[in-house]
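Lecture notes, unit on protein representations.

Consider one protein chain, 407 amino acids long.
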Amino acid sequence: MPPVSNPSNDIVIVGNSSDNPFAIDVAYAMGQNQDIADLIGMKAFTNTEFCPRFISDELDFSSIGNVLAGKTVVIVSTSSLVKTRQELAMHNFFIARAAKENGATSVILLEPDLFFSAQDRGAHTDLGDTAQPRSETDLKKFDGQPFTSKLYAQMLKLSGVDRVLTVHNHSSSVQSIFSQVFEGNFHNLIPYEIYAHYLLNSNIINYGPKGEGLVLCAPDKGARDFVKEMFVTLGLSNAKFILLDKERTSEHKVSITLHKESEDTFEDLEGCSIVLFDDMVRTGSTVVKSCQFLQQLQPERMIFAVSHFYASDEGRERMANNAVDEILTLNTLPTILNRDVQGRLRKKMVVLKIEKWLAQELGKILELPLTKEANPYKIDMSSKNPRFTRKIWFADQLDSLHQDAGE
């Protein structure tokens, strides 16, 4: 994919750490020719205090405090194994403030996995929006703790961030508060086209010309709208849609049944290919229980597709279960690309790298000229995966060579 045209160099892409490969790839896809390390220095004083500095000509005294005049600064923020999210959040605040105090017209935070989204409510009914009235049990879950996602939004705004982009955020409460704080300049990007293109153009699943033998599955009502939209995006009219119901009895124990509102039942679905979609996975208990429940259909293939994969070691061990044939995920948490972290789960893992897609979406928002591609993603697959081919590996390596050569 050719990079987005950025002839005026009015867009400055930086990361929230000095060695953020995700930010580097987004910058390349946006057409930024300068290395991020040549645009901003991530300095820390001897007392560990962080002090970012946008780099200017040392001999230029005519634009002091205005080195970013007329520019839009995009902070690409992802988590890492080196720094905590708390540290990286503080980096975001300081970088945004440095940008604004040095003349930036606008600051955008691109954070694919939005920090503190799990802390999306407080201990009072007015602290967090939910689809249903909040029960006393739900309020008690947050007793004594802050409504951190709201605080994070407010601190980003105070620091100078004008717009926030994220990917497949699961919380309606977070979406509501960020939309309020940023006065509508909040974009929750849903990767329908990414999943659809891969499912339609790879051999991960088998199905008929109009989706015969394919079942899309939502693990609960919270995921129903997303999966129904995936159904529409795929355009396979004869595929089936089923909805599951889960009752959580403890943090690691759930009971799975077919939801009474499911559009299809299990009748005539034996031997199908099933894709179970969800936005995120932590412990993996619900995923495995759901896939085990679906095994009564004796599926030909059982695929789990998830946008944010930040399972614990326990979760990875659990998802190595034979009930899950393959896991399709995005690199919103770049550590997913680390084979040592994946462990033996690598043999059933496929990661779709979305930096190009995010560059295209950012280009739309900023009204930049771009060439839209049908598959703006890269495939990362271990050679341990039975579906691995040298063609996939070579295409990925060739693209990396192009980036290194500045093509």
